Structure formats: C-alpha cells, structure tokens
Amino acid sequence: MTESPTALVVVDVQVGFDDSSWGRRNNFGCESNVELLIEAWRRARQPLVFVRHDSAEPGSPLARGTAGNAFKSCVTGDPDLLVSKAVHSAFYGVPDLHSWLQANAVQRVVICGIQTNMCCETTARMASDLGYTTTLALDATHAFDRIDTDGRLVTADELARMTATNLRGEFAEIQPSRALAERIGVSDR
User: Fold this and answer.
1) For 6-187, CATH number?
2) Distance (Å, rounded) from C-alpha 144 to C-alpha 34?
3) What CA–CA distance (Å, rounded) separates 140 from 36?
C-alpha cells in the first residue's frame, strides 16, 4: 500500500519580513531550516506549495509589485502550487489550496514559514479542521515581538512557544525540520 503524499506548505517566506518595522524576531535558523525542508521535499518528489502574502495594505513591505513581496533566497525553484493570499490562512488564497490538495490525494501537510503565531498558526488550524494530518516545523518558522493588551512585551520566543503549545495535540504535531527531512526521505517514495 502506498502512502498518500505529504505536502510541504511554505508560508510567506518573503523579503518584506526583513523590514525593521516588524520589530525584533526570533529563530535566525528559520531560513536555513526552510531551505533544508524544500530540498528534502524535492528529493523525495513530494508536493511543494509556496504561499505568498500579497498585501493590499498601503505601504506594506509585502505589497504586490514591491521588492518585499519577493520570496527570500532560501525559497528556491518552482513549487507544484503557488498560492497568493491577502489574509492569514493559506486556505483563503488563489488558487484554492484545499481543492488542489484534494485533487492530488494529499492527506498530510507540513507547514513552515513566517510568522509562527500568525499565518503559520492560522494555516495549521485550518488544515487540521479540514481533516489534514498537520505538522508544524517550528524551527522553520519565526515570529516578532509584540505588545500585549496590558502594554507589556511578549517576546517572539514566547509567542512561538505558545503557538506550539496551542497547536500540539489538538491541531498539529510539532516536529524539528531535520527529523521531518529525514522522515520524508525514508518513509515516502
């Protein structure tokens, strides 16, 4: 019996997130782990989905047609599917990610990208709710510091830890990139 494919969904790994307006980030190994996953998925001939945030907000570093809208250098080659979105979830983009996954018999997704607690978490929650076996490659994501409702700093590391805590068990498995890369190379095709 052949296992169904596992899609790697690379969310919003774009140059515009290098803009200082976002604040202090965590996990400077994110990009190298994204690159590791992309290479592993290509070698295993598994589905590769790139998601690009085409912001409609005036002055956004991610606005369509700006240098910040481009993918970072770790996102290489052509994906099997390129999804353009203007909201948090990759499932509300064009073309329709859910329809494409269904048409390609994909039942499992691995999510990586930017920002851990925003688009990655939202996409993981939706993937789970749509019935996909979902994994977040936490070390292939990063977040930015934020200010909470009481005006206190919540660090990017704290936000990433809370995302992993919120998703683990209920919505997704949390796995390191190296283990995922090894598993896709061994267990799939």
Assistant:
1) 3.40.50.850
2) 17
3) 9
pLDDT digits (tens, 9 = 90+) for 32-68: 999 999 999 999 999 999 999 999 998 999 999 999 9
User: How do 133-142 and 173-175 pair as beta strands?
Assistant: parallel
- Kindly write down the DSSP assignment for every residue of 11-42, as one continuous string: E--BGGGGSGGG--B--TTHHHHHHHHHHHHH
Nearest by Cα to 49 from 115, 123, 118, 116: 123
Extents of the domains making up the chain = 6-187
- The reported pTM is 0.95
pLDDT tens, residue by residue, 120-132:
999 999 999 999 9
Pairing of strands 6-11, 108-114: parallel
